[in-house]
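FORM 7B: Structural annotation worksheet

SECTION A. Query
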Amino acid sequence: MSNLQASDIIDKMMSEDAFSQWMGVERIDEKAGYSKIKMLVRKEMTNGFGILHGGVTYSFADSAFAFASNSHGKKAVSIETSMSHLKAVKVGDLLIAEAKLEHLSNLLGHYIVRVTNQEDETVALFKGTVYRKKEDWT
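SECTION B. Predicted structure
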């Protein structure tokens, strides 16, 4: 098992994560099995309806999921994910994604990510399962 702290692992991940950097992801809180991040919605993130592109919402939640699922020390890769979009998101909205561990075994981890706006309204729900590799973060 890795002796790195969750924040050390997420530091390493963020340094190589060009897409999370492009989205403007900022870390709020993190610990083993948990990640809370935020981002501000920009015009270049919108679709033809003038709302946040679903792929960006998904990627934002996926970043929180990746940070939470890797924060235990073992490298983890997603094997199944899904998302429900519940409310339109507009330019200028501040989103928060909070990923929480639901179940963990030696090989699998299951997480739920709630995405909210600045009014604390849930705009999306994401769930995901990871495969936990034998390889530790070093």
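SECTION C. Observations
The domain at 6-136 is CATH 3.10.129.10 (Thiol Ester Dehydrase; Chain A). The helical segments are 6-16, 18-23, 54-70.

SECTION D. Sign-off
Analyst initials: ____
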